[in-house]
Amino acid sequence: MHIDPAHLVTDAAALQALYGAPGEASLKKEVDHVHPHYRAFIEAAPFAMLATSGPDGLDASPRGDPAGFVVVEDEKTLLLPDRRGNNRMDSLLNVLADPRVALLFLVPGVGETLRVNGTARVSVDPALLERFAMDGKQPRSVLIVDVQTVYFQCSRALLRSRLWDPATQVPRSALPSTGRILSDLTAGTFDGAAYDRDLPARVADTLY
Length: 208
Description:
With 208 residues, the chain is an alpha+beta fold. It is 31% helix and 27% strand. The chain has eight helices and seven strands, in the order αααββββαββαβααα. The chain has helices at 12-19, 24-28, 36-44, 90-97, 126-131, 156-161, 178-185, 192-205; strands spanning 47-54, 57-64, 71-74, 77-82, 100-106, 113-123, 141-153. Strands 2-1-5-6-7-4-3 form a seven-stranded antiparallel beta sheet, covered by helices on one side. The longest helix has 14 residues, at 192-205.
């Protein structure tokens, strides 16, 4: 694909001229703490995306648990447990190098999302880990997020995508299985069939 540099926007002034001034509401909705209304969104959300930055690049990682899994400790502090996963630790390694984080909270059926920006620290305080135990199992660590800005995002993106519309749901069989992906990426040296066969039980046994 040929990209004509003449049509690239390369400075803030040109971008502002293209889009115009932000609306009044888009500025007034941003605060530097977790307002009680914003707390309601966080406590209703069973899913969030965690964005981080580090020396090897950017990362956006899904986080999920029963609604309220991210605890509003106070209006400037969030607590986010880190559950079992693949041990790549992309997000956590990034936080150690660059503490800046962003969170995007989604509430099923609700068009608006909630955005939180701040900095984070990785804690393994035994008392903190115990607070987040599920099925008798503690998280490996807990992110302590120091809140800097919080604001809601309007519903346009979710309305356009029809994300919560059951009619748009895609059957899992319509996409390549995870085992098939791994097999093809490794030219068949990875046993994808065995991976797919064992995956449901492995996920269920290692959820927490």
